[in-house]
Amino acid sequence: MRAHAYAIRAARLACNLSLSQVQQKTGIDKGHLSNVENGKAGLSDTNIHKLAEVYGVPHTAITHDDHLQEKT
Predict the structure, then answer these.
(1) Per-residue pLDDT tens digits for 33-44
(2) Exposed, middle or buried, 31 (CB in 10 Å: 0-12/13-18/19+)?
(3) What angle do CA 53, 58, 59 make, to 5 degrees?
(4) pTM, whole model, 2 decimals?
């Protein structure tokens, strides 16, 4: 599962959270989060689910793979 950088940043900003706040809530390094949001790095499934929980959205909102789940 590959996360989509724009969707992850948009979800964070919609929650009015800084990268430091997300790091505190998830344990994911803020430098890595920055790289993810800039499309320079990916995320593990575990970290995608952590972010989705913090942002209060389904993981498909930040991975755009909802069309894949409908086919399975």
Answers:
(1) 999 999 999 999
(2) exposed
(3) 85
(4) 0.83
